[in-house]
Automatic annotation (TrEMBL):
Signal peptide interval: none
Pfam families, alphabetized: B12-binding (PF02310), B12-binding_2 (PF02607), Met_synt_B12 (PF02965)
Keyword terms, alphabetized: Repeat
Organism for this UniProt entry: marine metagenome
InterPro entries named among the record's database cross-references: Cbl-bd_cap, Cobalamin-bd, Cobalamin-bd_sf, Met_Synthase/Corrinoid, Met_synthase_B12-bd, Meth_synthase_dom, VitB12-dep_Met_synth_activ_dom, VitB12-dep_Met_synth_activ_sf
Protein known as: B12-binding domain-containing protein
Domain B12-binding N-terminal residues, every copy: 1-46
Domain B12-binding: 50-185
Length: 542
């Protein structure tokens, strides 16, 4: 009853997520102590539960912090949660649901290819004649995609859940005899509205112009005078066991709080009237664990990075083994924005940041991959196995923070090697102070490091080319799943683009003409190209 009250308070916004997970830790310790007595009681009757919930991160995806939080919150509210972990294939999910008589199935995913896997799961549920409600969640998911792509594949109820604070209310409504019908009716009306909006082109498809017109609207660059800096070192550089105490000074703490659904920017989040007190407690716990990780070297940070001579041909970047540029060792394929809503607007591509081959100038393209290794999940598991989800989630969150800190540190190092980094007022190789850390967090430096699978270059499969160029699996032990998620989870990769005017952007919706051209450039079928770019397709697939 105490945990049910915690769940009610969390759902009403009167408790924050860290408090809920800490309460669950206390409950699990109490249950472990009382287990022998409870087993004796259970012989006289089954323990009642709010319902059975089977959840897993879909095949090809390795991220599970959000899923783990959802499991804890549901457990606090009396649900029997069967967590299948990560990279779970459809057959395992559905067989487990059948075996345990699941009342609800939950699918989680972080990367965009997971959306297709969710559609496959929905279709398979339909083929098997299931009626079990299906909940969709994770960073890459949305209410619109669920309504337009997933729900039509399954006659049972399919509902997108934004975060852990909403999941209990949704589950309770779905399993309530009194509220179920009204909830489903409202959900279906919402889905229909989103589908109608999509069909009418209100999602931005109507602004798509032919790819030739988009290319004509590319940003103008005078390549004769553009400042191109040659890196001091060309080719691969391997970084092994980067000191954790130094990396800690590079950490951006704001996302640490966001992982716990505490919204704000560090350190001003501490001043918020409601969340501030809990944020301070969470931060203190995080700092204590951070010290343990550093002193006992719980994690290992390793990376591989490099620069190579390069030029563009259209939206492709050709990477060469030397400055003679006679031997292409890698080719990266990028896309161009294709929506023009007003006069004078430009259509950007990441390829705009590298000198064209016909400019007769040698430019340089960089790439990197890094990981904190299996050590993060292994250390988190030691806490989770003892019933301490709170500390386990902090460990995972710190693993992600160290990974991003490593990315920031390596980027600073290679910028210094390109000389313009030394103009930032401090150099790499040492810890940074608060002012320098803020300079890095606010990205005031020259250049960008976009990542495959993110808004400006959404195709995750491009990581395969990067992995080969960097020899990443051999050098740092990080691998790619079938959906091109990086494994272990606390891993980061991306590109270095040093153009003085380089900036991040969202690709947005693109037309079939560009997707066809992209497929041809990559040497794949249109269907496969559409698979990797599906969230950005501005047309109905045949």
């Amino acid at each position: 009853d105490g945990m049910k009250e915690v769940g009610v308070l969390f759902g009403s916004g009167k408790m924050f997520l860290p408090q809920v997970v800490k309460s669950a830790r206390v409950m699990k310790k109490a249950v472990a102590y009382l287990q022998p007595f409870m087993e004796a009681e259970e012989k006289h009757g089954d323990e009642a539960s709010a319902g059975t919930f089977v959840i897993g991160t879909v095949k090809g995806d390795v991220h599970d912090i959000g899923k783990n939080i959802v499991g804890v919150v549901l457990g606090c509210n009396g649900y029997k949660v069967i967590d299948l972990g990560v990279m779970v294939d459809c057959d395992t999910i559905l067989k487990t649901a059948a075996e345990h008589g699941a009342d609800i199935i939950g699918l989680s995913g972080l990367i965009t290819p997971s959306l297709d896997e969710m559609i496959f799961n929905a279709k398979e549920m339909q083929r098997r004649g299931l009626k079990t409600p299906l909940l969709i969640g994770g960073a890459t998911t949305s209410k619109a995609h669920t309504a337009i792509k997933i729900a039509p594949a399954y006659e049972g109820v399919t509902c997108h859940v934004l975060d852990a604070s909403l999941v209990v209310g949704v589950c309770n409504d779905l399993l309530s005899e009194n509220r179920r019908d009204d909830f489903i009716q409202e959900l279906e009306a919402d889905h229909e509205r989103l589908r109608e909006k999509f069909a009418s082109g209100q999602d931005g498809r109507k602004d798509i112009v032919p790819i030739d017109k988009a290319r004509a609207a590319s940003p103008v660059c005078d390549w004769e005078t553009t400042d191109i800096r040659k890196p001091d070192i060309l080719g691969l550089q391997h970084y092994e066991d980067i000191p954790l105490d130094m990396l800690a000074s590079y950490i951006d703490w704001s996302p640490f709080f966001w992982a716990w659904q505490l919204h704000g920017i560090y350190p001003t989040i501490f001043n918020k009237p409601e969340e501030g007190k809990e944020a301070k407690k969470l931060f203190a716990d995080g700092q204590e664990l951070l010290e343990d990780i550093i002193i006992n070297k719980r994690f290992r940070s390793r990376a591989v990075a490099g620069y190579w001579p390069a030029n563009t041909v259209g939206e492709d970047v050709e990477v060469y083994d030397d400055e003679k540029r006679s031997n292409t060792i890698a080719r990266f394929h990028f896309l161009r924005q294709q929506r023009l809503k007003r006069e004078g607007q430009v259509c950007r591509s990441l390829s705009d940041n590298i000198a064209p081959k016909n400019s007769d100038r040698i430019d340089y393209f960089g790439g990197f991959a890094l990981t904190l290794g299996r050590e993060v999940d292994d250390y988190a598991a030691t806490f989770r196995d003892s019933g301490d989800d709170y500390t386990a989630i902090i460990v995972q969150a710190l693993g992600d923070r160290f990974a991003e800190a490593t990315a920031e540190y390596i980027h600073k190092t290679v910028r210094d090697q390109c000389s313009f980094g030394k103009e930032e007022g401090f150099t790499s190789g040492t810890s940074v102070d608060e002012e320098q850390a803020n300079f890095l967090i606010k990205e005031k430096y020259r250049g960008i490091r976009p990542a495959a699978g993110y808004p400006s270059c959404p195709d995750h499969s491009e990581k395969a080319t990067l992995w080969k160029l960097l020899d990443a699996e051999s050098k740092i032990g990080a691998t790619l799943t079938t959906s091109y998620a990086m494994s272990p989870p606390s891993s980061v990769s991306g590109y270095y683009l040093n153009h003085p005017d380089a900036k991040y952007f969202n690709l947005g919706m693109i037309g079939k003409d560009q997707v066809s051209d992209y497929a041809q450039r990559k040497g794949i079928t249109l269907v496969e190209a559409e698979k990797w770019l599906r969230p950005h397709l501005g047309y109905d697939e045949q």
